[in-house]
């Protein structure tokens, strides 16, 4: 093989991206929700149970599972939280909210090393899957990867009861904001 062709071959091989395997760290994650109502905007949190995502930037294939503890939902108001858990989420019967990715599109991020991801998959809520594209950004930081995602969950369209009652009108969509640290796992390491 001529040296020029060999160098070209090596350069092309280096450009092929390796699969990425991220393990989210529940202790270093926040899952916040916001929902508008006629009285005020409600803010609350949920806890991440686990998260493991693998994707291949070259093929777009993705797999894994992200699990949020539905029973951990907390808005700071015990009466509102009781109603959320018993009448809307039914979290005793459906304790997990899950996202199962199957495809990914990777775009270069705004800073070197950053990526903007579009993860397609099934968002499981109340025991039923719903097709969703979840946008996220990744940023390498101090040996870890910082992941940020903002998306909406149209819970009423997906078959859950509305949180509205009598005069109180509550939005049918919940805004979710996720920040999590993940470690990059290399297969065979």
Structure, briefly:
The chain has 2 helices and 8 strands. The chain has 189 residues and is mainly beta.
How would you portray this structure in words?
The protein is mainly β and 189 residues long. The chain is 13% helix and 55% strand. It contains 2 helices and 8 strands, in the order αβββαβββββ. It has helices at 3-15, 78-88; strands at 20-36, 41-55, 62-74, 96-108, 115-125, 128-141, 144-153, 174-184. It has an 8-stranded antiparallel barrel with strand order 1-2-3-4-5-6-7-8. The protein starts with a helix and ends in a 5-residue tail after the last strand.
Topology:
Layout: H1 3-15, E1 20-36, E2 41-55, E3 62-74, H2 78-88, E4 96-108, E5 115-125, E6 128-141, E7 144-153, E8 174-184
* Radius of gyration computed on alpha carbons: 20 Å
Distance between the first and last residues' Cα: 33 Å
Q: What's the shape? A: elongated
Give the low-pLDDT segments: 1-16
Return the structural class.
mainly beta
The helix/strand series, from N terminus to C terminus, equals: HEEEHEEEEE
What is the mean predicted local confidence, pLDDT?
A: 88
Main sheet, how many strands, which sense, barrel? 8 strands, antiparallel, barrel
How many strand elements? Answer: 8
- The amount of helix comes to 10-25%
Question: What descriptive keywords fit this protein?
Answer:
8 strands; elongated; 189 residues; disordered N terminus; 2 helices; 13% helix; single chain; 8-stranded antiparallel beta barrel; mainly beta
């Amino acid at each position: 093989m001529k040296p020029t062709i060999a160098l070209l071959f090596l350069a092309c091989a280096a450009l092929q991206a390796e699969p990425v395997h991220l393990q989210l760290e529940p202790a270093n994650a926040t899952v916040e929700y916001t929902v508008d109502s006629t009285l005020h905007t409600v803010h609350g949190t949920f806890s991440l149970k686990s998260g493991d995502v693998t994707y291949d930037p070259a093929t777009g294939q993705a797999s894994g599972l992200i699990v949020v503890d539905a029973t951990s939902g907390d808005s700071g108001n015990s009466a509102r939280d009781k109603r959320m858990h018993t009448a809307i989420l039914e979290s005793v019967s459906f304790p997990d909210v899950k996202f199962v990715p199957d495809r990914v599109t990777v775009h270069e991020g705004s800073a070197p090393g950053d990526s903007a991801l579009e993860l397609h998959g099934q968002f499981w809520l109340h025991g039923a899957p719903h097709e969703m594209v979840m946008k996220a950004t990744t940023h390498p930081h101090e040996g870890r990867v910082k992941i940020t995602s903002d998306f909406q969950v149209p819970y009423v369209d997906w078959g859950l009861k509305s949180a509205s009652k009598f005069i109180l009108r509550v939005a049918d969509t919940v805004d979710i904001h996720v920040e999590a640290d993940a470690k990059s796992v290399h297969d065979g390491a």
